[in-house]
DNA sequence: ATATCGATTATCT
DNA sequence: GATAATCGATATG
């Protein structure tokens, strides 16, 4: 029996970002476009706390840029970074209290060819769609993931993830996450040392260098 | 395999 | 004017 597919509701996000970050692992992030449905399984997240977290954008208080983090739970906070990349977060906690979770990596599930095209990755034959080394380039990293899904601040900031008609949603297909590893967050200088990065153990689509062992069989 | 560096711009000091 | 929740390219062992 295929389990039913549930859209995550606001209450899912109305709690501590650490719990949300952990609970998001294994869920499906889905983007609907005219041409296709793009989706990936969430394999890596980071929690960003409120005004106490020196690494969080909310630390300086509410501004035009970070206002979504202070708003109601379940909304997209998208920011532009390093002059090149977008990063996607979801707001957590009730209206008025800042907090969010950064999506850092997906395992591609559907719309793989469309996502590869959006990333400028060339697919040479159906075999390429099964190679981990190729699939890993699609959405293993927050900037890559946004490029694959076509996420921009202009298009998606302040979008409601929990709307049934939203073109950006998170679905629960009852996938079971076996083991989770918690590490320091990536790419931050302040408030390093906090363990707020959540990854699915042994999953090859987590960002960063691969473990030397897990290599593909030679062709 | 690891290390270093340049790109490129919104945002804040 | 400096910085940044990144990426991809290049260099080197």
Summarize this structure as a short list of keywords or feature phrases.
DNA-binding, 9 strands, alpha+beta, 9-stranded antiparallel beta sheet, disordered C terminus, 219 residues
- N→C terminal distance: 36 Å
Profile the largest sheet.
9 strands, antiparallel
Using only CA atoms, what is the Rg? 17 Å
Q: What string, H for helix and E for strand, traces the elements in order?
A: EHHEEHEEEHHHHEEE
Contiguous runs where pLDDT drops below 50 for at least 5 residues: 213-219
Care to count the β-strands? 9
The average pLDDT score comes to 94
Overall, the morphology is globular
- Percentage of β-strand residues: 25-35%
Which percent range fits the helix content? 10-25%
What structural class results from the helix and strand content? alpha+beta
Q: What is the count of DSSP helices, taking H or I runs of 4+ residues?
A: 7
Characterise the protein shown here:
With 219 residues, this protein is an alpha+beta fold. It is 20% helix and 27% strand. It is built from 7 helices and 9 strands; from the N terminus they run E-H-H-E-E-H-E-E-E-H-H-H-H-E-E-E. Strands 1, 2, 3, 4, 5, 6, 7, 8 and 9 form a 9-stranded antiparallel β-sheet that branches. Strand 4 (76-81) and strand 5 form a beta hairpin. Helix 4 packs across helix 6. It is globular, with a radius of gyration of 17 Å. The protein starts with 5 loop residues before the first strand and ends in a 19-residue tail after the last strand. 42% of the residues are buried. Mean pLDDT is 94; it is low at 213-219. The structure holds a DNA duplex (13 and 13 nucleotides).
């Amino acid at each position: 029996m295929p389990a039913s597919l549930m859209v995550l509701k606001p209450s899912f996000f109305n709690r501590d970002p650490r719990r949300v970050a952990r609970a998001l692992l294994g869920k499906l992030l889905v983007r609907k476009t005219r041409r296709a449905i793009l989706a990936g399984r969430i394999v890596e997240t980071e929690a960003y706390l409120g005004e106490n977290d020196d690494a969080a954008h909310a630390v300086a208080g509410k501004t035009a840029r970070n206002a979504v983090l202070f708003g109601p739970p379940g909304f997209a906070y998208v920011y532009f970074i390093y002059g090149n990349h977008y990063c996607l977060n979801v707001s957590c906690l009730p209206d008025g209290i800042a907090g969010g979770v950064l999506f850092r990596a997906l395992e591609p599930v559907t719309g793989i060819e469309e996502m590869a095209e959006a990333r400028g990755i060339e697919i040479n034959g159906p075999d390429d769609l099964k190679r981990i080394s190729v699939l890993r380039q699609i959405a293993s990293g927050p900037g890559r993931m946004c490029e694959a899904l076509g996420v921009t601040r202009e298009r998606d900031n302040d979008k409601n993830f929990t709307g049934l008609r939203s073109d950006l949603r998170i679905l629960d297909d009852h996938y079971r996450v076996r083991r989770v590893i918690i590490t320091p967050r990536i790419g931050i200088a302040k408030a390093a040392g906090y363990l707020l990065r959540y990854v699915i153990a042994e999953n090859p689509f987590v960002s960063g260098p691969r473990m030397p062992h897990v290599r593909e069989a030679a062709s």
